[in-house]
Design the sequence.
């Protein structure tokens, strides 16, 4: 909450001690140096922000913005252990020997959510919740019935093992040296399984009446 909300019209006064803080800041930033002595780089940079026309440059910050960025950390340091009020309400000097608790006004904004409907028409979303629940029950029953791990054949190591242990492809013939080109990129492959040996391999789709792979004698399926 802004302090002006609690004290709408605070009295205006000048803190004389603040001048000492700004003088030390000016010396630390070399703001009073000339062109031949000390390091005047910051002063030269600030001089670039001086406007030459009665309007601000849209590509450069103003002089006030540049000074605010330079003095911002000093103002934060000076605000440490300061009072929340616009006056010093303690006796015994400007520094307290022990810390004290101070109270200040603050505004908290909160947002709450509820699981139930607020309007009568929102009850229709119960149907969506019912469908989600039934889907979860179906998935649970499926995983209970189909126990075991599922092999991801798109994984790099599994795909490499399938390619190495698969019969050669006729439609990709001659592509071993430079890779597939042209129509060879359109060859489709399917994962097949030899039931007698539980061997998985890749089989290319039939094209132009050709047989994709050779059938080994003495096997019910294609096996390599």
Sequence:
């Amino acid at each position: 909450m802004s302090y002006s909300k609690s004290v709408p019209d605070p009295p205006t006064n000048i803190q004389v001690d603040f001048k000492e803080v700004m003088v030390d800041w000016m010396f630390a930033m070399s703001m009073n140096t000339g062109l031949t002595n000390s390091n005047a780089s910051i002063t030269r940079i600030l001089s670039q922000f001086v406007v030459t026309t009665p309007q601000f440059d849209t590509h450069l910050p103003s002089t006030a913005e540049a000074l605010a960025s330079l003095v911002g950390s000093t103002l934060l340091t000076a605000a440490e252990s300061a009072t929340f009020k616009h006056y010093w309400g303690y006796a015994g000097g400007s520094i307290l020997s022990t810390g004290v608790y101070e109270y200040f006004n603050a505004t908290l904004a909160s947002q709450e959510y509820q699981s139930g409907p607020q309007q009568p028409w929102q009850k229709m979303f119960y149907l969506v919740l019912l469908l989600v629940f039934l889907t979860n029950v179906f998935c649970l029953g499926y995983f209970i019935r189909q126990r075991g791990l599922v092999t991801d054949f798109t994984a790099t190591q599994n795909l490499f093992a399938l390619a190495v242990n698969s019969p050669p492809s006729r439609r990709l013939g001659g592509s071993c040296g430079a890779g597939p080109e042209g129509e060879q990129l359109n060859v489709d492959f399917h994962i097949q399984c030899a039931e007698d040996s539980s061997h998985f391999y890749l089989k290319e789709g039939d094209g132009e009446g050709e047989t994709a792979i050779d059938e080994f004698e003495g096997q019910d399926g294609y096996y390599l």
In short: The CA atoms of residues 161 and 201 lie 9 Å apart. The chain is about 30% helix and 5% strand.
